[in-house]
Write a structure and sequence with these properties.
- The protein is of the alpha/beta class and 215 residues long.
- The chain has one domain: Aldolase class I (TIM Barrel).
- Strands 3-1-2-4-5-6-7-8-9 form a nine-stranded mixed β-sheet.
- Strand 4, helix 2 and strand 5 form a beta-alpha-beta unit.
- The protein is globular, with a radius of gyration of 17 Å.
- The protein starts with a strand and ends in a 7-residue tail after the last helix.
Length: 215
């Protein structure tokens, strides 16, 4: 493989906690660095630090675990240019790869074999102005759009975005409450009241391992 390197915050084996792959044993590759500062971020430890590793070293660590599911996340993984090379290499090696990325980064150059989980930033995140709306035009049924909702205003904003862009006709849409800020039962009631074509999700990893707030 290439001698390209990435700064890695951590690589760990766990259950996927979100999106359509929830519950699947998955290797997580968390890249260091993020240009955004969302108010509810639960992985701010990944903003700095980490270790430089070659793609060969990363692949060797991934192969130690008994699964073909791999998620590349952050921070913001696409902030490192070599992330694209990592994603291609994982796909070439036969892994089922998903990418967790913000709505602020261009996803058009991501390998088509990768499932892109795009987190559109809501007003309460403090980063709504960073959303790159052109990403919506390149979504495929393999991708997913996620809205992390901190309050009722976020919910109303997300509902309006759905109405204006018809995202659910392009790919699955996920509504997720900010942990310990929005009552999940209340969010469920809003979705049912409005008959929204979305999937509500909770973060399984936080339900199972409540002390692991960063994962």
């Amino acid at each position: 493989m290439s001698a390209s390197r990435l700064r890695i915050s951590e690589i760990f084996f766990s259950l996927q906690g979100e999106a359509s792959r929830v519950g699947l044993p998955t290797v997580f590759i968390r890249l260091t660095g993020c240009p955004l500062r969302c108010g509810y971020c639960d992985t701010d430890y990944a903003f700095q630090g980490g270790d430089w590793r070659t793609l060969t070293e990363i692949m060797a660590q991934v192969r130690r675990h008994p699964t073909r599911h791999v998620t590349v996340t952050g921070g913001e993984p696409l902030a490192q240019k070599a992330c694209h090379e990592l994603l291609r290499g994982l796909c070439d090696a036969g892994f089922d790869v998903s990418l967790e990325t913000s709505g602020a980064m261009d996803i058009s150059g991501v390998d088509v074999r990768v499932a892109r989980i795009v987190d559109l930033k809501t007003p309460a995140s403090g980063e709504v102005e960073r959303n790159l709306w052109s990403n919506l035009s390149v979504l495929t049924p393999r991708d997913e759009i996620k809205f992390v909702l901190a309050d009722a205003a976020d919910y109303d904003w997300a509902r309006q975005v759905l109405a204006e862009h018809g995202i659910e006709r392009r790919c699955p849409v996920l509504f997720s409450p900010v942990w310990n800020q929005v009552d999940p039962t209340e969010l469920a009631a809003w979705i049912l009241r409005d008959g929204l074509p979305v999937r509500m999700q909770l973060q399984l990893h936080k339900i199972l391992w409540r002390e692991a707030q960063g994962r």
